[in-house]
Amino acid sequence: MKIAFYSPLKSPNHPVPSGDRLMARLLMAALARAGHQVEIASELRAFLPDASVDAMEVRSAADAERARLSALWRERGGREGGAPDVWFCYHPYYKAPDLIGPSLAREFNLGYVTAEASYSARRNTGLWAKMQQDVLETVRQASVNICFTQRDLDGLAAAAPGARLAVLPPFIDPALFRDRQPMPEPGRLITVAMMRSGDKMDSYVMLADALSRLTHLPWQLSVVGDGPRAAEVRSLFSGFDKDRILWHGEQPAAVIADLLSRSALYVWPGCGEAYGLAYLEAQAAGLPVVAQEIAGVPEVVVHGRTGLLTPPGDIDAYAQAIERLLTDDGNRMALARAARPFACEHRSLGQASARLGTILDEYLKRARHDG
Fold first, then answer.
1. Angle between the 126-141 and 101-108 helix axes, to the nearest 10 degrees?
2. CA angle at residue 81 from 77 to 85, to 5 degrees?
3. What pTM does this model have?
4. Nearest to residue 170, comparing CAs of 95, 270, 260, 281?
5. String of b and e for 79-116 (b: at least 16 CB within 10 Å)?
6. Distance (Å, rounded) from C-alpha 209 to C-alpha 218?
7. Domains (ranges, CATH) in the chain?
8. How far lies 352's CA from each of 153, 257, 370, in Å?
9. Which residues are registered as beta bridge partners of 111?
10. 198 Rama class: left (phi>0) / alpha (psi -120 to 50) / beta
11. How far apart are the C-alpha atoms of 60 and 167, rounded to whole Å?
12. Which of 213, 215, 214, 200 is nearest to 223 (CA)?
C-alpha cells in the first residue's frame, strides 16, 4: 500500500533527536519492511505547548497543508494514481492533534491509522480541551488505533468506546547494539537522556539524589545527552568527586552503542516515561536496567528478569536497587543475559514489522468490507 506518514508533534526529519523522532523513523522502517511504500506527507509541526495560546496560526497552517495535499493528489491522478491508500498518523495527543489527515481521509476515502494516540481527561483545560476533542474524533474515525502500552489502550477504550484498538509493543532496531560484544567495566553506570524541563529534569534530580547515597561504593556514571537544562543538570552532580561523572554530551547512535557496550548498568528513574526506547537500547547492548515501576516503563523492562523496577518516588528503594546490582555481580549478569535477547529478538524491528503488517491487513480489510 501507499502510506502517507504524518507526525504532528515532530517530523521524522526534525533536527533535534528525541524518542518521538526515533519512534517515527522506526515505524516508517517497519512499514517499509512489511512491503509498503511510505512517504512523509507533511512536515507541519502542529504543537501547542501552552493551554492558553491562540491556535489560529496552527489551524490556518493545517488548512493550507490540507489544501496543498488535496490539490497535489488530484493533480497526480486522483484516488487511483495520486492519493495514498492510507494516512498513518503517529502520536496525536492533546498538544499535537492531527489537523490534516482526518478530512483528507474522508475526502479521498483513505484508510486512517493512528499509532500511540493518547487521551487524558485531566488535560481538558483551555485550548487543550478542544485539542482533546480533535484527538477523540480522530480515534473514533480511525480504521485502527495502534497502542504501544496498556495505559494508552485503556485510556482510549474508556474515552472512545467502540474505537478499533490493536497492540504493538515498543520496539527498536537492535543492529547497532547486537553487533557489539558487551564488555562491561565494573561499576560503570550509564544514562542516556535529553536535558530539558519536566519529567526528564525530575529523573535527573532523582538520579543525583539516589547516587548521593551510594558514595561508599566504587562507581562511575557516564551521562549522554544535552539540552536547554544542561547547566542545571550538571549542577545537580557538582557535589560528587569530579572523576565520578563523565559528561559525553549529545552523541551519534554508534558512539552511544559503544558506550553502552562498555557499561555494566543502565540507570534512569523514568519519571513520566511513555515507555522509553533508551531502555530497550540499553538492554540490547546487554545492560540490566534500574528504573521506577511507573507510567509505561514496565512495558519495556521486565522486573526481575531484565532489570529492577522500584516504587514510584521512593528514592531509598531506587538507590538500594542500584546498590544491589553493584554489589551482586551474579545477579547483574543474570539480568544482563536475559535483557539482550528480550530487546534484540522479542522487541526487534523485524518482529514489529511482522506484527504491524498483520494489524494493517486485518483492520484495513475489515474497514473496506464494512464501508
1. 30
2. 125
3. 0.92
4. 281
5. eeebbbbbbbbbbbbbbbbbbbbbebbeebebbbbbbb
6. 16
7. 2-171+348-370 (3.40.50.2000), 175-346 (3.40.50.2000)
8. 17, 21, 27
9. 86
10. left
11. 34
12. 200
Taking only the tens of pLDDT, the chain with its 371 residues reads 999 999 999 999 999 888 899 999 999 999 999 999 999 999 999 988 876 667 788 889 999 999 999 999 998 875 456 899 999 999 999 999 999 999 999 999 999 999 999 988 888 888 888 888 999 999 999 999 999 999 999 999 999 999 999 999 999 999 999 999 999 999 999 999 999 999 999 999 999 999 999 999 999 999 999 999 999 999 999 999 999 999 999 999 999 999 999 999 999 999 999 999 999 999 999 999 999 999 999 999 999 999 999 999 999 999 999 999 999 999 999 999 999 999 999 999 999 999 999 999 999 877 665 55
What are the grid coordinates assigned to 58, written together? 496552527
Backbone angles phi, psi at 190, to 5 degrees: -150, 145
Cell numbers that stand for 202 in this block: 525530575
Q: 206 and 269 in contact (C-beta within 8 Å)?
A: yes
